[in-house]
Request: fold
Amino acid sequence: MNLILLGAPGAGKGTQAEILCREMKIPTISTGNILRSAVKNGTPTGLKAKAFMDAGKLVPDEVIIGIISERLAEDDCKNGYILDGVPRTIAQAEAMEKAGIVFDDVVSIEISDEAIMDRMSGRRVCESCGASYHLVAVPPKTPGICDHCGGKLVQRHDDEPETVKARLEVYHKETEPLKDFYRVRGILKSVENQPTVTETSQAILHALGR
Ligand code: AMP
Reply:
């Protein structure tokens, strides 16, 4: 099962990807997490990506295409994977298609910009493993500490309100056209965001026929 999760920044892709990955026993691949770890480690890719990320802009397609083709070639992707945050542009989707990467389903999580702005202020991520939390909706067992790895939970620089606005604009302009791209290929499933994380997961699993 090769799956793409689409949705605005803050739609809950990361949280849902973690749940689906446990349920379906396939890895989640998040280019955002790969890039944040590259920035933290000061790798050449990280150095290239940092300024774009801090400004809420997209990292150039060729950087992303390089990262993703390397990652999908790894052994744990043999039985399928969930992509979170990629592809993000038509050019990325076309490059993946050209490389022979085929998707079974594309799930788009639908949520209003207003709801995103409200929710982003509470988002926290683990600085070690990238797991996502929300102060109200998905709190960690111990405040400030990751349930999975014990890492420290932090607010992302790009979750600040002005950057979130910029990221939403980029989403509508660059990423939302992917819905039509996959709709004409017959694999788009739109799922409305639900009041709770669990209900949204159930809606996604239902849309996937599980
Ligand atoms: P995310 O965690 O998916 O919200 O990604 C955080 C930031 O990383 C984005 O705002 C972009 O700057 C960059 N990024 C992540 N994935 C991509 C992608 N597929 N294409 C371009 N930039 C990306």
